[in-house]
Specification:
Elements: E1 22-26, H1 54-65, E2 71-75, H2 85-93, E3 100-105, H3 110-120, E4 124-128, H4 134-141, H5 146-158, E5 165-170, H6 179-188, E6 192-197, H7 215-225, E7 229-231, E8 242-246, E9 252-256, E10 269-272, E11 277-279, E12 288-289, H8 291-294, H9 300-312, H10 332-335
Parallel strand pairs: 1-2, 1-10, 2-3, 3-4, 4-5, 5-6, 6-9
Antiparallel strand pairs: 7-8, 8-9, 10-11, 11-12
Helix pairs in contact: 1-2, 1-9, 2-3, 3-5
The chain binds S-adenosylmethionine and iron/sulfur cluster.
Length: 337
């Protein structure tokens, strides 16, 4: 085990002046469903010994929090399949400087975990939901589960989670018919719906440009068929979503147009994979090995220096629209979306 010791507290700035305040941690590469845009049908998961322990994750959080990171998002794979996740939430909650802890989940297990997560100090939830049609759900997720997701959402609201976001991956040939029902559902249940463009990070490596529906065209459908939309001026610069208010005051809808309109110049994120690698970009092809440092006698300053090096190497943009673009080796479930 490495020694815990004082670290420098300079902000985590990259060579373009972007200050990193947002840590995304993948706690597992496993999942209880198999969304085709993320995982292959047959997957070889990481062995347990190669996955960061809660103590190791909490140590990384402490190290980066001292350097100004104040927001943490837990993701995966499916984070709720990691046992006793509420314990990790409580450990992160106890770290000085962390203001906001969120989780991204498919909500299949949320009904049984919502209360414990709330009690542990989880602030916010993003729930992935691409359709309200059970058959389409099964086609996308290659597993059943819509009913559980809906129960999970209801339970999360019942235990007091507010401002829950629904994330919908926009998929050509599938999502067109889902836009209006999802928008109406979100308005009815007081949820903020966000459409994410399909990115070339699917495990099957079958992504093609013509499968992307751009956020702008979805916005036009909603404005035409649901309610007029007004730009939300309070959109935070580092936030990838472009938000709109419904003109009748009944909620918001957002668009993460990562393919058609990348938001790299305001990116303040760093990522840790379940097997303890630092990534400075979803689409990056380079990783920095933290797990070996954490399992050696390296002190906290040495761990921080590896993180600083990864941040300094961050590129200006992800370059998916570049002809030279090479997709990363790992798919979304292995990186932590
Ligand atoms: N299992 C959890 C879930 O689905 O919410 C968390 C991990 S999942 C990888 C995180 C987010 O990435 C989900 O909202 C998912 O829909 C999204 N995602 C996965 N593959 C994607 C892709 N190829 N393009 C865009 N979004 C993707
Ligand atoms: Fe699992 Fe989330 Fe990937 Fe779907 S998007 S396969 S729920 S990790």
């Amino acid at each position: 085990m490495g020694s815990h010791s004082a670290t420098d507290t300079a902000p985590l700035v990259d060579s373009f002046g972007r200050v990193h305040k947002n840590l995304r941690i993948s706690v597992t590469d496993r999942c209880n469903i198999r969304c085709f845009y993320c995982m292959p049908e047959t997957v070889k998961f990481l062995p347990h010994k190669d996955i960061l322990s809660f103590e190791e994750i909490a140590r990384v959080v402490q190290v980066v929090a001292a350097a100004g990171v104040d927001r943490v998002r837990i993701t995966g794979g499916e984070p709720l399949v990691r046992s006793q996740l509420d314990k990790l939430i409580a450990m992160i909650r106890a770290v000085d400087g962390i203001k906001d802890i969120a989780i991204t989940t498919n909500a299949i297990l949320l009904e049984e975990h919502a209360q414990r997560l709330k009690d542990a100090g989880l602030d916010r939830l993003n729930i992935s939901l691409d359709t309200l049609d059970p058959k389409k759900f099964e086609k996308i997720a290659r597993r059943k589960g819509l009913e559980k997701v809906l129960k999970g959402i209801a339970k999360a609201q019942a235990v007091g989670f507010k401002d829950i976001r629904l994330n919908t991956v926009a998929l050509a040939g599938i999502t067109e018919t889902e836009i209006v029902p999802l928008a109406l559902f979100a308005r009815q249940h007081n949820l903020t719906l966000r459409f994410i463009e399909f990115m070339p990070l699917d495990g099957d490596q079958a992504w093609q440009t013509d499968q992307v529906i751009n956020g702008e065209s979805i916005r036009e459908v909603i404005a035409g068929e649901v309610c007029e939309l007004l730009p939300a001026h309070e959109t935070v610069r580092s936030q990838p979503a472009v938000d709109f208010h419904y003109a009748d005051g009944r909620g918001k809808v957002g668009f993460i147009n990562s393919v058609s309109s990348p938001f790299c110049e305001a990116c303040d994120r760093l990522r840790i994979t379940a097997d303890g690698r630092l990534r400075n970009c979803l689409f990056g092809t380079e990783e920095w090995n933290l797990i070996d440092a954490l399992r050696s006698d390296a002190n906290d300053q040495s761990v921080l220096e590896i993180i600083r090096e990864g941040i300094m190497k961050k590129k200006a943009g992800h370059g998916t629209d570049d002809v030279q673009f090479k997709r990363p080796q790992r798919a979304m479930y292995q990186i932590g979306g």
